[in-house]
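BUG: 3D viewer hangs when loading the predicted structure for this chain

Environment: internal workstation, default settings.
Expected: structure renders.
Actual: progress bar stalls at 90%.

Input used:
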Amino acid sequence: MIPGMGGMNPKQMQKIMQQMGIKSEEVKAKRVVIEGEEGNIVISEPQVIAIEMQGQKSFQVTGKIEEKKGPSEEDVRLVAGQTGASAEKARKALEESGGDIAEAILKLKKE
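Structure tokens produced before the viewer hung:
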């Protein structure tokens, strides 16, 4: 049942949508990533529905949501300062280590 649809079953809803010129289809996906300016939103085990209406396509995504923020500039400076690496390499090492400063430093010192 679809919430808010007064007990209408999904097949009835699909038929009504088709009559209105609305097409929907399930999109097979392993995970969905939304890249933001301050971090990413990762949706695992997603159920993705593509809906096309009046020439516009939109997506409805549900699943397990996890927000992943990028490393802070302070952490990047610390790792770069401790290893002599560039800020870009320090940021990459932090991302690969899941934000673990010590692991990022050790990784860069091994290079």
